[in-house]
Amino acid sequence: MACNIAAFLPEQARRQPDALALVVPAGRGKDGRRSYRTCSNRQLDDRSDRIARGLLAYGLCRGDRAVLMVTPGESFFALTFALFKAGIVPVLVDPGLGIAQLDQCIGEAEPIAFIGVAKAHLARALLGWGRHTLQILVSVDSVLGWGGATLAEIEALGETGDPVLADTGPDDLAAVLFTSGSTGPAKGVEYLHRHFVAQVECIRAMYGIEPGEIDLPTFPLFALFDPALDMTTVVPSMDFTRPAGVDPAMLAELIDDWRVTNVFGSPALLATVAAHGVPNGVRWPTVRRVLSAGAPVPWRVLDAMHRILPADAQVFTPYGATESLPVASIGSREVLAHTRQRTEAGGGVCVGRPPEGVQVRVIAIDDGPLPTWDRASELRAGEIGELCVYSPTTTRAYFGRPNATALAKIDRDGQTWHRMGDVGYFDDQGQLWYCGRKGHRVELSGRTLHTAPVEEIFNTHASLRRSALVGVLRSGRVVPVVCIELRPDAPVRGKPLAADLAALADRHDTTCGIDTFLEHPGFPVDVRHNAKIGREKLAVWAQARLGWR
To answer: Which domain holds residue 542?
Structure first.
């Protein structure tokens, strides 16, 4: 039986042809308010069919890989579903990764086609992306000097014909989605069609999403689930590579105009919304839930969001990774009422319970490959170790990276378990607690420090926006150093702040003895969520700043 994530779209077009699939901002009217373009289920289904037929007529074949670098909007959604329908494999890479990583990612994916906006094609032509494998070029707008076809020409090629839906199987490759590259090189995760289908069903069940809801996704990939979830997508006008720089007033206007019920945003975006919304009395009266992923959401941000949301709404923070999502989830009410206190005392960050069908185990930390489960050592509740997961959404491999696959996967009786690269533990009630990235732990003589337990203690200080633990060499030994970002209204600074933090450290076993603090003007963060701290870069900066050897 065929299994294709795009099959949800023609089904919606059959059941509700005139229901809205997409809402896209289209400038401002004379009254100063935004105007919009809309696209129904039938229109999106028809257009994606035309594009699918056109791409196949232009020379692309089922199983071919195509880089897609298109600004989120109607063409992005139509193209993505067209590729799925035709059985062509979209390769999705964050454009903000930087020239070197983009070149590496595209080279590894070995794409046949490159579909992009003019700016993406210009970069490709100048920098030689995919020069050894690319044969087909499609530009969403003008072709200029690089050749190929425009999207309009592709649609004209596919103007007439039967609906397209490749009879892909559950284990057929659906997409190559690159990780954010926040902790090491970005890697292409092989998504099979069954992984997407399983994610849709899991997300629907976890959050009680109902047909007819209105979604405002500030992370484009999440919006691709909307047709399957029977939700309308309202596309915000923003730079998706810089969610922290979002215009909160624009989001509030979209929510008001379209009665949005669901919002997906990174912790950095929510922090921006909260900082603007609370003092200005902003309300999101129709929103039922906010989903936020990519990094832990500070409790202050959760608390502020409750002042913006209706009384019966809350923020959910699904935990997972590109390789396996979701793994666990928790709501803001439980965080604020129960788990925050343990977090501030050095217990790590509670990420909730795994949903039905998701298995999580904690094993002893090991930096080498573990090809089979009998090589791993499972830990008891309360013991911090490496988190491993298996579920219907757990991916099996990285594209073209067998060594990375060997390091990240464990075979357990024919099941492929994913090593999350994170450390944590289960408490006695079965709640999962996140303690940081495995590669960010700081090994000292006689003890190991993990980032989240240490940092959340210091983050309780009123002067700190956030902190980051790194290890720095001093006379050949590793010394823990905490980099700090101050709040604009920090009541204590300089030496008095350092003394405060040292005293705070000595009150907890987790942080006892930490006495070196460095103020940083602004932490480096990932390009996808603007929330994952670049601790590798901070460690280099701290070593240079201190001048130790």
So the answer is: 441-546
Query: Is residue 256 situated within a structural domain?
Result: no
pLDDT digits over 119-131, tens only? 999 999 999 999 9
Express each pLDDT in 270-292 by its tens digit: 999 999 999 999 999 999 999 99
Which pTM was predicted? 0.95
Whole-number Å distance between alpha carbons of 445 and 517: 20
**How far is residue 260's CA from residue 234's CA, in Å, rounded to a whole number?**
8
- Provide the 3-class DSSP secondary structure of residue 492: coil
Structural domain ending residue among the three candidates 110, 141, 168: 168
pLDDT for 142 beyond 90: no
pLDDT band for position 434 (50/70/90)?
A: very high
Which residue in 298, 88, 264, 61 sits closest to 174, CA to CA? 88
For the chain, give the number of residues. Answer: 549
Give me the mean pLDDT over the 229-246 stretch. 93
Q: Is residue 70 part of a domain?
A: yes
In a domain, 260, yes or no: no
The three-point CA angle 276-277-279 to 5° equals 80
Strand order in the sheet with 173-178: 149-150, 136-139, 113-116, 65-69, 89-92, 173-178, 188-192
Q: What pLDDT is attached to residue 458? A: 98
CA distance 302 to 492: 24
Do residues 158 and 57 touch, judged by C-beta distance below 8 A?
A: yes
Which residue from 547, 387, 532 is spatially nearest to 468, judged by alpha carbons? 532
pLDDT at 33: 78
The pLDDT of residue 528:
79
Strands (E) across 265-333 are located at: 289-291, 314-316, 319-321, 324-328
**Within a domain: residue 156?**
yes
Count of domains observed in the chain: 2
